[in-house]
Specification:
Length: 135
C-alpha cells in the first residue's frame, strides 16, 4: 500500500471510531469553495467545536433542502456591511465569490443551521495529483 493510502485508511478508521462523538463526512459537490476544495473532495467534520472567523463549516441552506460548505466570514458581534451581527448570527461565504450562493445573497445564518466544523480533507489525498477530466 502506498503512503497516502495508509493515511486515507487511518483517517477512515478514525472516522468510524469517532462517529459516536459527532464526526461525519461530507462530499463537496459544487465549485463555491474552489480553490480550497473542489467537487469530489471528501471532508471530515465534527458537530462539536468552536466556530471562529475563518473556520470552514457545513450548514443547512436557509432556503433549500441541501447542505453547504462555506467559510465563516463574520461571527457574533462583528460589523459586516454596516450591520452588527447578533449573538447567534454568522456570515458564511464561499472562497469562490463568482460561483457561490452564500451569505452575500441570503444574509447571516443562525448557529442552529451550522451542522459542523470541517477538520480535514481526506480524499483525494492533499498531495495527490489531480487529473483533468478526459485524461
Amino acid at each position: 500500500m502506498r503512503g497516502w493510502a495508509w493515511v486515507a485508511a487511518a483517517v477512515m478508521a478514525a472516522w468510524a471510531a469517532s462517529r459516536g462523538a459527532g464526526t461525519f463526512r461530507v462530499e463537496v459537490a459544487g465549485r463555491s469553495m474552489v480553490p480550497t476544495f473542489r467537487p469530489g473532495d471528501w471532508l471530515v467534520a465534527t458537530r462539536r467545536g468552536r466556530i471562529r472567523r475563518g473556520s470552514v463549516v457545513v450548514l443547512a441552506h436557509p432556503d433549500r433542502p441541501i447542505d453547504l460548505v462555506k467559510r465563516v466570514h463574520g461571527v457574533p458581534g462583528d460589523l459586516v456591511d454596516g450591520r452588527l451581527l447578533g449573538t447567534d448570527e454568522y456570515l458564511v461565504v464561499g472562497d469562490n465569490p463568482a460561483g457561490s450562493s452564500d451569505g452575500r445573497r441570503f444574509g447571516p445564518v443562525p448557529r442552529r443551521v451550522i451542522e459542523g466544523v470541517v477538520r480535514a480533507r481526506y480524499w483525494p489525498h492533499p498531495g495527490a495529483v489531480r487529473l483533468r477530466p478526459g485524461r
